[in-house]
Design a protein that fits this description.
72 residues; mainly beta; 4 strands
Length: 72
């Protein structure tokens, strides 16, 4: 029996921080292993700012989220 497992965890990923608070090339990119990218407190632990979070899965699929965080 084949089925899609929508509860799978990412195998790795990255966090891109836009240092000027706008989409441009002034960025800091942080690679994340499976433990870091799947941390349930990942977004809560970010400082205020503009981020893109990329998650990569073993089956080749990717998920990208844009986060604008204001305050903690």
């Amino acid at each position: 029996m084949c089925y899609d497992n929508f509860n799978k965890s990412a195998s790795f990923g990255s966090i891109t921080q836009f240092n000027d608070g706008v989409f441009n090339t002034n960025v800091t990119i942080l690679s994340q292993d499976s433990t870091q990218i799947n941390n349930p407190n990942l977004i809560d632990d970010l400082n205020p700012g503009l981020y893109v979070i990329d998650k990569n899965f073993e089956d080749g699929t990717q998920q990208q989220s844009v986060i604008q965080k204001n305050g903690n």
